């Protein structure tokens, strides 16, 4: 519920001008209740909470990018599918690999991959 509310409050225009905002928010939530998130990221059954969060993030991203690039639907959909699944998978990997790198480093790397994906598909995210 807390993460869902946080996602609803994300200003995607501001986020994609500085994607580190989202990852700092995610880091803060994880650090506040590490054990709960560690357990969540280890659940593999279909329809779990993480899949719902991934879906929420993807839907928000789709709406944001289609508003900015309505003529580029195919690239937007591909980018949003790839990015939302990749972000969640990276955090799942981190939790399941005994956090071999600091959370901040993971977030920075995921942020860089997000930016590289946008650039690779020539997706505009700022005015």
Describe, in plain words, how this protein is organized in 3D.
The chain is mainly alpha-helical. Helices cover 76% and strands 0% of the residues. The chain contains 7 helices and no strands. Helix 5 (49-68) packs antiparallel against helix 6 (73-96).
| DSSP strand count | 0
Biggest pleated-sheet summary? none
Structural class of the secondary structure composition? mainly alpha
Low-confidence runs: none
Helical content band:
over 70%
H/E element order: HHHHHHH
Q: What's the average pLDDT? A: 79
Q: Tally the helices: what do you get? A: 7
- Distance between the terminal alpha carbons, to the nearest Å? 32 Å
Strand content: under 5%
Global outline = globular
**Radius of gyration, in angstroms, nearest whole number:** 14 Å
How are the SSEs placed, and which strands pair?
Layout: H1 2-8, H2 12-17, H3 20-32, H4 34-42, H5 49-68, H6 73-96, H7 103-120
Helix pairs in contact: 1-5, 3-4, 3-7, 5-6, 6-7
In short:
The chain has seven helices and no strands. By secondary structure, the chain is an all-alpha fold.
What descriptors fit this protein?
127 residues, 76% helix, 7 helices, mainly alpha
């Amino acid at each position: 519920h807390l993460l869902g509310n946080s996602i609803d409050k994300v200003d995607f225009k501001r986020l994609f001008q500085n994607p580190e905002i989202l990852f700092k928010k995610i880091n803060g939530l994880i650090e506040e209740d590490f054990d709960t998130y560690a357990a969540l990221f280890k659940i593999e059954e279909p329809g779990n909470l993480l899949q719902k969060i991934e879906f929420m993030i993807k839907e928000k991203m789709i709406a944001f990018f289609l508003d900015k690039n309505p003529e580029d639907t195919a690239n937007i959909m591909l980018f949003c599918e790839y990015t939302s699944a990749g972000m969640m998978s990276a955090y799942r990997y981190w939790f399941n690999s005994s956090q071999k790198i600091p959370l901040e480093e993971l977030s920075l790397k995921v942020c860089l991959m997000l930016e590289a994906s946008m650039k690779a598909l020539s997706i505009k995210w700022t005015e």
